[in-house]
Amino acid sequence: MSNRRTFIATLIAASFAVGGMSSAIAADQVIKVGTLKLMHGITPYFYDKFTPPGYKIEVIPFETPTDGKNAVVTKSVDFGTYGLAAATLGAAAGEPVVIVAAQCNRGMAVVARADAGIDSIKALKGKRVGILPGSTQEVVILDRLKQEGMTVKDITPVRVSFSEMASALERGDVDAYVGAEPGPSISVGKGVGKIVEYPYTTPTGTVNMVMTTHADTVKSKPELIKVFLKIHQQATDYAMANRAAFVDMTVQKLGLPAKTAELAAPNVELTWKLDDDWSKRAQYYGAQMLDKKQIRRMPDYGTFIDASFVKQVK
Questions:
Q1: What is the pTM of this model?
Q2: Which parts of the chain fold into alpha helices (H)?
Q3: Which CATH number applies to 108-197?
Q4: DSSP label at 52?
Q5: Span 20-72, pLDDT tens digits
């Protein structure tokens, strides 16, 4: 009888131990991260390699920058990466969006049909140009047109999502587009399109996508932001130092041919740093949006861009 009681007690103790282990596993904090279906939004897929014990990453892909921004505003995700334009639109409208890190520079290109005879921005006059409203590319191309003495009235803008631009060019729905990688490299790789230019000559420079969170997270979960940005920094540095891994992940997650990903990689600079020069370019960008009446007022950059967390990342 004594042995039976001992056996039952052992089973109960083991049951509690297993239950405790299950609770510990279930206690892992899930960090939801939204990203775009673009090559320069690939960094979150490397996060698992650098996530510390006690945390788990869930990556949620979005089709448009506005979708990603709205997910941050509604707290559907803890962090979201998308273009500076969408973030600026949200902050200018009083939405609780805070930039806590950069995501990527570059990643843009003006692409034309190879047989369209378009060799410059000026040659876009009278042409159908695919542009995604509310994107960083929209503001950049409007600034480039201004530099060339043109306005959007000199072209016929056609609303096209980034993922559809290469197909729209191939079908002949547009004569050119202002796209995001890997779209430009898909067009070039197929021989359908050619690069008119990489539009980095405006004061905005190469600034493109940002990493954001909700203002409430900044106030109430600063430690979570520190943990997350360390993951983001390590994943970014790893992807940029390991081109093969960067290309392989792009092929895996976006379903691209390896040659297309290889072609696009040099036009994508994954990054995480926020410095004074970056902030200056971002504010210039906001001024351009205000000038073009895309926003009614400038964001409060004192709270919209919070570089304090990045400065703590070593």
A1: 0.85
A2: 2-26, 65-73, 84-92, 136-147, 162-171, 183-189, 215-220, 222-241, 243-254, 258-264, 276-291, 301-304, 308-311
A3: 3.40.190.10
A4: P
A5: 444 445 578 999 999 999 999 999 999 999 999 999 999 999 989 999 999 99
